[in-house]
Structures are given as structure tokens and as C-alpha cells.
Amino acid sequence: NAILDQILIIIPNVKLSTKDVFEKYNKSDAKSGSISKIIKKILKHEKKIEVINDLEESANRLSDGLIKKIIQECNEQGEVNTFMTGSGSGIVALMLDQQQTKKIKEFLENKYSNIKIICTNLKMYTCWKKKNVIV
């Protein structure tokens, strides 16, 4: 049961300190909700799965809005699941379609002169093991 076929790892030209990101974090930034909702969507093979990183807002403040801008631009390209990794500044875009992956990669490379993008066709699988989900 392959769920995602194409993955872009986007590394903007902005350095964020984990310490600084956590210091800028506000409790009002928490929006991730329940991980069980995400797991249910994955198991139903839904194309659009909103993954939210609660540190994204504080990282976005430190990057002068760049993190949010890149995520928004990727999501505007179609059915893309885009989110920031850890405390940033890396961004992951998960897609099902190779053409879409190429389109987004080219769009970002043309728009941003100093950005690193890694593309892989890594396939992700899910399975159940005693109430724990392994992705």
C-alpha cells in the first residue's frame, strides 16, 4: 500500500537555531491537533493530509516569513502535503505525482537563487503493530 511516491526536501538559505526557535514559541502557536486524525487519513489513503508543525510559526517569525511563504507556494501548486521539519529551516513536500514534483522543484529553483532541493522517489508504507503505527 504505497501512500506517497515523491518527496522533496527543501532547504532555504536561512539558518535557524533550535534554541531561538523554542524561545520564540508561543503556546498560541499550537495547532497540530491529534496525531490520530493524521494516522486515520494515511490509512484511508487520502491525498491531502495536513501535517502541522507547532514550531513553524516561531521559525517563520525568525525567517522573516520565508518558511510560511515556501510552504504556501508549494501547497498552491496542487495536492501537496508540505510542512517544516523539526525546528526548521528544512521543509518537506510529499506528493503522489512525479510531474508535480518536477513542476514544484523547477518553480522553487527559478524563484529562489540560493535554495537546496533534494528529490527522492522514496515510498512510504504503513502497518499496524499492537496499536502502534509504524510509518
Overview of this protein structure:
This protein has 135 residues and is of the alpha+beta class. 35% of the residues lie in helices and 19% in strands. The protein is built from five helices and six strands, in the order βααααββαβββ. A four-stranded antiparallel sheet has the order 2-3-1-4, with helices on one face. A hairpin with a 2-residue loop joins strand 5 (127-129) and strand 6. Helix 1 crosses helix 3.
Strand content: 15-25%
Order the strands across the largest sheet as they lie in space. Answer: 2-3-1-4
The succession of helices and strands, N to C, reads EHHHHEEHEEE
The largest sheet, given as strand count, sense and whether it forms a barrel, is: 4 strands, antiparallel
Strand-pairing-aware structural class: alpha+beta
Give the CA-based shape.
Answer: flat
Mean pLDDT: 78
- Based on CA atoms alone, the radius of gyration comes out at 15 Å
- Low-confidence parts, pLDDT < 50 over ≥5 residues? 124-130
Instruction: List how many beta strands DSSP finds.
Output: 6
Percent of residues in helices comes to 25-40%
Distance between the termini: 12 Å
